Amino acid sequence: MRRIRLWPKGLTGRVMIVLLAAILVEFAGTLLLFGEAERLLLRSGQAHRVAEQLVVADRVLRLTPERNRPYVAPSLSTRHVRFALHDSAPADLNETRISNAAQQEIISWEPSLQGRVLRLGITPSINGEMPNRLVGALQLEDGSWVYFHSREAISIWRAPLNWVISLLFLAGAVLLVAALLVRTMGAPLRALASATDSIGFAEQRIIIEASGPQELRRLAEAFNAMQERIEELLESRTQALLAVSHDLRTPLSRLKLRLHGRMRPEDPEAMRADVEEMQAMLDSLLEYLGGGDGTRNDPPTRTNLAALVQTIAENAEEAGHDVRWEGPARLEAVIQISALGRAITNLVENAVKYGERAEIRYFPEGEQAVIEVRDRGPGIAQDMLPLVTQPFFRADSARARDTKGLGLGLAVVDQIISQHGGVLVLENVENGLIARISLPVEGGSFSRNQKKKSGNILLRF
């Protein structure tokens, strides 16, 4: 069985249905409110005219001799009310809620009729051709009855044809204007959808101009920022593949030569070193591609940085490196212990690798915790200092194999420090290089910078 969909898929159709429903509700409310008010005014006016003419007729007939009253009563008729004189009360009046309300209105409008015998009714319509009219009788002092018959029809609830025509015209005009406006407003969304479909196929980046309403400007800015992130992501992944394919060739070539050649006693150890080098390359690559920030299983915790630095330094000493540290016994800060420990370890390993010795200083500076790692090496060329924190960049020219790795060590460190809301600064000094880390003690910036969360978010429109 085919399912019928009543709710339109498009924005224009949905807005038109909402506007049509609003028009119908407003029309119904207006019709009920003003129609009821109009009916009440008409009935009140009829009751007031009947009341005034009844009082006049009563006074005139009271002053008229009894033999002349049957002739005088009809002469009191007007174009609104017809009068007649009878000896007995009417027997077949159709009393209704409307007639009772009219009787109360008559007595309220003419208090002189209070206490008098007054009977009212509504003439029934015949086949819908003869409209309802107000009829009744007032008993005079001599016992006779003056009959009255309103010549104005009592208003009933019905929607005139011109009202229906007005409704249709109004609804059509509003829906036409709404369709044009919504289509105009939806043009940027259609352009955005078209631009989104072109991502990955167009030769150039598609930039959407941030103009129009605030929501559309924010949408355009978010779209442009998303494209930049995608481009950076693809570029970093491409660089990763190029770097690993380039740098793995040398140890693989050495392994091939040793496997196809005559095995020497020192070859197993050299082959083991090549395998470890390739393993280190892949580990650093996976660490970088995986985020390098350790946010998922490493929540921010208030930690004694002094103990963390001393532990790293002692581990480096046990590995046979010359490492010295200096700082207070306690320096607390809100950090990710594993991630920051990995960053400091990378700096210490670089220091002992290129500068033979690592000197670590840590101290508070205002609301910042500062960690400095200094080596005694040749430093880095001044023009390369801004580049060494970029992924896959190495200071050795033309990516020569004089140094091992993929050039991701400082990139990972900079990524971790940025995740903490801190700053990494590299500075050449006399006889060495200083890597300076500044971290907010309270870790306030960390919660705002932490954007990666596990799981999916479903947005339903």
Automatic annotation (TrEMBL):
UniProt xrefs under Gene3D superfamilies: 1.10.287.130, Histidine kinase-like ATPase, C-terminal domain
Catalysed transformations (reactions): ATP + protein L-histidine = ADP + protein N-phospho-L-histidine
InterPro entries, per the entry: 2C_sensor_his_kinase (IPR050980), HAMP_dom (IPR003660), HATPase_C_sf (IPR036890), HATPase_dom (IPR003594), His_kinase_dom (IPR005467), HisK_dim/P_dom (IPR003661), HisK_dim/P_sf (IPR036097), Sig_transdc_His_kin-like_C (IPR004358)
Compartments reported by the entry: Cell membrane
Boundaries of every HAMP domain copy: 183-235
Transferase found in the keyword field: yes
Domain Histidine kinase: 243-443
Protein name per UniProt: histidine kinase
Native organism: Altericroceibacterium indicum
